[in-house]
Known about the structure:
Helix content: 25-40%
Number of helices: 3
Strand content: 25-35%
Largest sheet: 4 strands, mixed
Number of domains: 1
Number of strands: 7
Distance between the termini: 28 Å
Low-confidence stretches: 1-34
Structural class: alpha+beta
Shape: flat
Amino acid sequence: MSLPSRVARMLGALALPLCCGLTDIAVAPAHANPGQGPSWGAIASVHGWYGYSINHPSRGAAELAARAQCDRAAGRSGPCAVRAYFDRSCGALATGNYGEWGTATASTAAAAGKAAAGQCDSHLPTEPCKVVVSVCSSR
């Protein structure tokens, strides 16, 4: 079982609903190379489960793949929602101890993770939020 799957299973075992999040955030970086095709990624989540995708030719394909991975992790079809999408950049999802969550996109995985944790922490969890996934699509 892959590390993301194990983390997703551990989060799901906690049965914490992911709520109170921020709106979807997307970034299309200005520094993208002209002539290079898109490389979309997305992050989807529901009730402690998540899925992600990277390096897809369209936003729709990236979102579909992220929702499908999340649905498989959750063990049922349809409940996962896309929380972030990005083209030639990075995205992250952070969760809190009572279901708080935040997402962010940035030019690096570390920056996206830090911003997602900060957004999640703004919901006043009793303990700091933790980044559960931070991924980048090709540039």
